[in-house]
Write a structure and sequence with these properties.
With 246 residues, the protein is of the alpha/beta class. It has one domain: 3-Layer(aba) Sandwich (Rossmann fold). Strands 1, 2, 3, 4, 5, 6, 7, 8 and 9 form a 9-stranded mixed β-sheet that branches. A hairpin with a 3-residue loop joins strand 7 and strand 8. The two termini are 32 Å apart.
């Protein structure tokens, strides 16, 4: 649902091209990225709670990331990077698709936000020491998940916080996120490849291999009454905090 960032040997060029074609429509809440617009407030709620818990920030402050550096990997056109900047962070956004970076930079500039957007391979950029690393709905789009996670780990500061979200590989996600959602046009066709989804257990093991510890995942579920919301149900999608293993 978000765009995959280029990592050597892991990025699928067709994935980057697919999301790049959506760039000009990315900020339209009724357009091809409508589902991301609905998902973003749920992710932000989790991220804000995680920031407050990890950095012991004042829960009422509007700028909990003031004085901190954040990077959003696979940033698309900036749907998450902009709220992170408004929270006070010095934000870097990295994406594989040049069209996404073009649209992201223009949108941020129009809103008066100074975000450092970069197109290319995070592993080649020499970026490190970030207080917050986020990558939303990206890991399912890369061919080599271990290499991708290693690159994320390289960007994370020693006392930093990482937040990842991704679809779970379950029968329910195959039916609802792939077959149903793409058939009725909730997400563009070709966005999801169910076999590339990663389960929480698999993600835990990949993170551990990079010297990272995964927190307790929370599901992002849907119901007719509540819409998209944080839940204990991990069947469709989940979001999780990650820190360096002590």
């Amino acid at each position: 649902m978000s765009n995959a960032t280029a990592i050597p040997g892991t990025i699928r060029p067709d994935e980057a091209a697919h999301f790049g074609r959506l760039a000009d429509d990315w900020w339209d809440p009724a357009g091809s990225s409508a589902m991301l617009h609905r998902l973003n407030p749920v992710r932000l709620r989790f991220i804000r709670d995680a920031i407050d818990a990890h950095f012991a920030t004042e829960v009422r402050t509007m700028r909990p990331l003031a004085g901190r550096r954040a990077i959003d990997v696979g940033c698309g056109a900036g749907l998450l990077a902009e709220p992170l900047a408004r929270m006070g962070a010095a934000v870097t956004g990295v994406d594989a698709a040049q069209d996404n970076i073009r649209v992201a930079a223009a949108h941020a500039g129009a809103g008066g936000l100074a975000i450092d957007y970069r197109c290319g391979d995070i592993a080649d950029m020499g970026l490190a020491g970030f207080d917050l690393v986020t990558s939303m709905e990206v890991i399912e789009h890369v061919a080599d998940k271990a290499a991708f996670v290693a690159a994320l780990a390289g960007a994370l500061g020693d006392q930093g916080l990482m937040v990842l979200s991704t679809p779970n590989r379950t029968a329910a996600s195959r039916l609802l996120l792939v077959e149903a959602a793409e058939r009725i046009g909730m997400v563009p066709r070709g966005t999801h490849h169910w076999a590339d989804f990663i389960t929480p257990v698999e993600l835990h093991d990949v993170l551990a291999g990079a010297g990272l510890t995964m927190g307790h995942p929370q599901g992002i579920a849907w119901s007719p009454n509540a819409g998209l919301h944080l839940s204990d149900n991990l069947a469709l999608n989940y979001i999780v905090t990650v820190t360096r293993t002590v």
